[in-house]
Amino acid sequence: MTKRIAFQGEPGAYSHEACRNARPDMEALPCRTFEDTIEAVRNGEAELAMLPVENSTYGRVADIHTLLPQSGLHIIEEAFVRVHINLLGVPGANLSDVTRAMSHTVLLGQCKGFLQEHGIHRVTGADTAGSARHVSEKADPSLAALASPLAGEIYGLDLLASHIEDNSNNTTRFLIMSREADTRPRGKHGMITSFVFQVRNIPAALYKAMGGFATNGVNMTKLESYMVDGSFTATQFYADIEGHPEDSNVALALDELNYFTTNIEILGVYPADPGRH
After folding, report:
1. Which keywords does this chain's UniProt record carry (predicted)?
2. Regions in the chain scoring below 50 on pLDDT
């Protein structure tokens, strides 16, 4: 039986591309929402989930950090995908035919220079792959889609222009999640530990909690805050650090963090992807 990896979106989405790159031997399972993606793994419909957490241009993906602690899943890997945006048209269309381009509002904003240069008007679609499917169904040479190469392949569209994004370094980071924690040997590029915590209600609690990482030489690569249950006082933090909890300096830093927090939950300990460097 073919194993599955679940992702949010339609076939041809950038999350689908991430699945194909990271797990080419697995069947990609499209899901309507992030919650559905997580549930597909929890109920055994899929073995893994591919979840986007942040983009180098637009920052964190909304809602993901609040879903991770309650997911019951473990981060076992990270993956970085360069967001190459292509202009896709119906078969036989030329770039000169295109007067409108459809995509998710984020991608439309990432191709302003190209669209202005060619006098192409922006049309907002629900998502990138859905826009490609819509263009394919309309069969109108004047309407194109901004989407991934995979979307063009799936919906039978021609490549009219490639890599038209304004920011040549635009990259999305994904987390691969599983029902079981990762017990593989340490990665050759080091390890990442991801966790969430809430600080105690004492003066300068966050400052004191972070001090242990500095004094023990632990590099914190990410720290995000978000509210819990709509409260302005109960703030939860998501963090990524370099290292493994069994490393002596990481263990000391986590012990000090524990003193200034009400709870710490490890979401995953996994190999660092070479793409982060």
Report:
1. Amino-acid biosynthesis, Aromatic amino acid biosynthesis, Lyase, Phenylalanine biosynthesis
2. none
